[in-house]
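To the wet lab folks,

You asked to see what we're planning to order before we commit. Fair enough. Below is the target structure as tokens, and below that is the sequence we designed to fit it. If anything looks off to you, flag it before the synthesis order goes out.
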């Protein structure tokens, strides 16, 4: 079984501020730093650092070649990563306040240049039963879901950032949803956790869900059973990469045949380490760190 992550790569510019800027306000940042990022890249790195071989598909500009080098340094196979000469790499502008909370503005760049032909070239090398991981930071997600489903691949979808278009992606073809409460609410129209779980089981009875709940931890459900994992208490410095770390680690554990309970616990430990560090990709821990915790 192979795992391909068809996802975004960004150059993140992080601004440290006392409070996140309000409309009409101008504030000063105490520090500005550049980090590698993008939900796709972060999740590939988390999978790799959790010990899995992952193929990364997507697009960058020539200004993002250092992102490719970082992925390859961590063992990610980048044979399906295109380098575009006439388009810049995607970017994110992130404010992080004194409490570690963040807000993000995205510029799609090369992430928005994926075509149906690109998808066909990538998926021809994968087989029924292989896993494909997707987020919502690239173009062509609906077509990629359709093509992967027709091949019999296991479609894993993180609908982030959530947009109205997500509801038209053919979500009945998704095998596993990885999402937070806000994304769950927008997909189901329900405002409480139990309501989200029930509505997802009704709308997509063939899918499993993993719902991250912030300070309340996380849960998994297949519509018949619910497994809950409490959050681990740490002092947060930067929450930017926590969700992506959780995604990579929980999928790596499940792919190795671990129980749902163990997979959620390991992912919680990994994401707890991430929030104690600055940055996104650079904050993701290695498997040895998580096992030692």
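Sequence we intend to order:
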């Amino acid at each position: 079984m192979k795992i391909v992550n068809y996802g975004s790569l960004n150059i993140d510019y992080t601004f440290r501020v006392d409070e996140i800027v309000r409309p009409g306000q101008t504030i000063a940042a105490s520090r500005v730093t550049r980090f590698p990022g993008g939900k796709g890249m972060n999740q590939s790195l988390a999978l790799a650092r959790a010990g899995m071989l992952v193929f990364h598909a997507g697009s960058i500009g020539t200004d993002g070649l250092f992102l490719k080098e970082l992925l390859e340094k961590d063992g990610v196979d980048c044979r399906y990563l295109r380098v575009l000469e006439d388009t810049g790499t995607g970017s994110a502008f992130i404010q992080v306040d004194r409490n570690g909370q963040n807000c993000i503005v995205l510029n799609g760049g090369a992430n928005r240049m994926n075509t149906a032909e690109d998808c066909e070239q990538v998926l021809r090398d994968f087989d029924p039963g292989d896993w494909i991981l997707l987020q919502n930071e690239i173009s062509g997600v609906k077509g990629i879901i359709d093509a992967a489903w027709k091949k019999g691949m296991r479609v894993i979808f993180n609908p982030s950032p959530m947009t109205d278009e997500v509801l038209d992606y053919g979500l009945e073809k998704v095998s596993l949803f990885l999402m937070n409460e806000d994304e769950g609410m927008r997909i189901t129209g329900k405002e409480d956790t139990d309501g989200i779980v029930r509505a997802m089981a009704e709308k997509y009875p063939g899918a499993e869900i993993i719902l991250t709940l912030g300070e309340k931890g996380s849960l998994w459900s297949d519509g018949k059973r619910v497994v809950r994992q409490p959050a681990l208490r740490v002092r947060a410095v930067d929450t930017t990469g926590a969700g992506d770390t959780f995604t990579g680690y929980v999928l790596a554990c499940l792919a190795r045949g671990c129980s749902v309970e163990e997979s959620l616990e390991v992912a919680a430990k990994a994401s707890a380490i991430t929030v104690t560090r600055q940055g996104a990709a650079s904050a993701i821990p290695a498997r040895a760190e998580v096992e030692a915790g």
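Structural context that might help your review: The radius of gyration is 18 Å. The chain has one domain: 3-8+38-85+112-292.

Thanks,
Computational group
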